[in-house]
Every structure is written in C-alpha cells, then in structure tokens.
Specification:
124 residues, alpha+beta, Trna Endonuclease, Chain: A, domain 1, five-stranded mixed beta sheet, 2 helices, globular
Length: 124
C-alpha cells in the first residue's frame, strides 16, 4: 500500500490547521514533537496558556468524523506525550494547559470543513 498520498494529505491538513491557529493569534512552540509516548502535532501558546493541538483529517466519514477519531486511547497517548514534553521543557510547566483538536473533513472536490475544538478534553 502506498502511504505517500495519505502522508501528503495529512501534512496539508496540519499546514491548514497551523494557518487557522496562527490567524487566531496562537504562537507555534513545536511541530511534530516525537517521544517514546507518542507525538504532539502542534504545541502552541495562546497568551499564557500552553495548547497541545491534535490535528485529525478524514477523507470520508465511513469510519466517523475526524473529531470522532480522538478516542480514549488517543487521548491517553496525547496526555503521556504532553507529560514528556513538559518534563523536557521546564519553562512551560507552570502555565495553564489545554488540549485542542482541529478536525478536518473532506466534503467534496477539493472542499474541506475545519472544526477547531478548544479544550476538547482534560487530563483527569
């Protein structure tokens, strides 16, 4: 199976999400932060708040929407990756932390809908 088109689509979705968030005033701290616990697509700040952003893209809704794909297992991986990030960079440890999701769904020929879900889930 050739994953190159999927990877390119995912990269485009991440670029679109980053543009949306920057336009809304967020500042990029890190992109595609990898660690043994997982990956954080975008780490940004909005004022004093550190924002971990998961970007999800769906070509079709046969298996649910992009937002639906951020299930309990995915949230747990994101929480662990965020903990790792904070352990590595002490300057953000005292800032408020928020988890956002940017869900991107294709709706037709070169058309998408983007949904920015702020405070999508919490570390319980």
């Amino acid at each position: 199976m050739n994953r190159a088109p999927h990877l390119a689509a995912g990269q485009r979705a991440e670029d679109q999400a980053l543009e949306l968030l920057r336009h809304a005033g967020l500042t990029l701290v890190a992109r595609n932060y990898h660690c043994p616990q997982g990956e954080l697509d975008l780490v940004m700040t909005q004022g004093e708040t550190l924002v971990m952003v998961e970007v999800r893209y769906r070509r079709n809704r046969g298996f649910g929407s992009a937002a639906d794909s951020v299930n309990a297992r995915k949230r747990e991986k994101l929480l662990r990756a965020a903990q790792h990030f904070l352990q590595q960079d002490a300057r953000y440890r005292r800032q408020p932390l928020r988890f956002d999701v940017v869900a991107i769904n294709e709706t037709g020929a070169d058309r998408i809908e983007m949904d920015w879900i702020q405070d999508a889930f919490h570390a319980d």
